[in-house]
Amino acid sequence: MTIGKGCGILAVFFMVAFAGDAAAHSADKDIPHYKNDPSWPKPFPHHWVIGQIGGLFVDPDDHIWVLQRPLPYALDEAGVKQTIAPAMRMPSVLEFDTAGNILKSWGGQGYVPDWPKSEHALWRDAAGNVWISGNTPGDRQVLKFSSDGKQLLEIGHPTKAPRNNLDTNMLGQPAGIAVDDAAHEVYIADGYLNNRIVVYDSDTGKFKRGWGAYGIALDKVVNAPEPPPTPSYMPEGPAYVPGEPPEKQFRTPVHCVRISVDGTVYVCDRRNDRIQVFTKQGKFLKEILLHRETRGYGSVWILNFSQDRRQKYLLVGDGVNKRIWVIDRRTGFEKSSFGEGYLHTVHQAGLDSRGNYYTGDVGFPQPGTQVLGNGKTLQKFVLQ
Asked: What is the DSSP string of 102-169?
């Protein structure tokens, strides 16, 4: 963990962590431990086939809201594609109970004129409204719906215009959403095209403020160059050189945003293998560097706070290393991990009021193989 720009603490921590310091771990009696529940969710009705999990959120009633991508089907689902009529495809928005039953479903391609082409991120606010975004070229908007699927608000609009971190009238393939209900504000991790956090009035959609990495102003935000493509299904990210300082800008994608009980804003800078922490006004407070040796799409995909009163731990989903890291929120030290052997490409996650943890995989395809649909799963991990 680094505060500001130093890297010494991180290096010491990695030495301790990989040496397996049992004494350090035994001092934390409240570290959450999880067991996979293979009975969740229940079998889907109507022969539905679930797609990539673009978004997931657990509401105060312990209902699990899922945003999935019904299209396209993978090669190993070609038979299903031929036998299920388009009208019978699984809706994009699904509401589950803790037993794994679907309570409600709606949405999908063509549901409203500006429905995103590739669903990504879901949030349910205190009023019961559901927010979604999209992350494919042309998806430059966030949509707000009632819980029954009536569109209430649109921030941004679909366009093929060039990316522009100064333009707050449209977004840049937004990847993450968080609503501050008390302040009537929506925070958007923006995203796969832009490199910024932007905040809007959650009732009117009016822009309020925004910033880049380390809290820099929007006119200082520069889109980091993308790594060159490789034959692998997972493009190589920048190689980590020990001792080098972290990158000055967010790297695509800025993948998630979360607000803690103490009013600080946590941002997943996925490909930079780090979490940055800010005040609500965008002042940089600290960063947590997590397995900087991780290549490809990076180590920080999604984060959630533990359900204790102080939110002592961060649960960080890592879609490359295929596990959940349990991080001390104050120190940034890695305490444990779980999910090995169950997770494929963990993409979204949430916790219910009992601390049970729900995950959604995105299941990236591997060109040149016939096994392309693997990993597109919803799972439940029960707090022990």
From this structure: EEEEE--TTSSTT--SSEEEEEE-TTS-EEEEE-STT--EEEEE-TTS-EEEEEE----PPP-TT--S
Closest CA to 212 of 195, 224, 225: 195
pLDDT at 25 over 60: no
Q: Tell me, rounded to whole angstroms, the distance of Cα 254 from its chain centroid.
A: 9
At 37, which helix (H) or strand (E)?
Answer: strand 34-37
How many Å apart are CA 168 and CA 46, to the nearest integer? Answer: 42
Instruction: Please report, for residues 116, 125, 129, 148, the alpha-carbon distance to residue 112 in angstroms, rounded to integers and kept in the order given.
Output: 9, 20, 16, 13
- Please tell me the distance from the alpha carbon of residue 159 to that of residue 117, in angstroms, as a whole number: 12
* Least trusted range by pLDDT, from 23-37, 118-132, 269-283: 23-37
The amino acid occupying position 322 is: K
Residues of 278-310 as b/e, b for ≥16 C-beta within 10 angstroms?
A: beeebebeebbbbbbebbbbbbbbbbbbbbeee
Least confident of 3-7, 137-141, 143-147, 179-183: 3-7
**In Å, how far from its chain's centre is CA 9?**
27
Decide: pTM greater than 0.85: yes
Other beta carbons within 10 angstroms of residue 148's beta carbon come to 9
pLDDT at res. 24: 37
Higher pLDDT, residue 223 or 164: 164
Could you tell me how many residues make up the chain?
384
The mean pLDDT value of the chain amounts to 87
- Backbone φ and ψ for 331, nearest 5 degrees, come out as -95, -20
pLDDT value at 8 more than 50: no
Q: What is the distance between the alpha carbons of residues 365 and 376, in angstroms, rounded to a whole number?
A: 10
Give 367-380 pLDDT, tens digit per residue: 444 444 556 899 99
CA–chain centroid gap for 310, Å, is 22
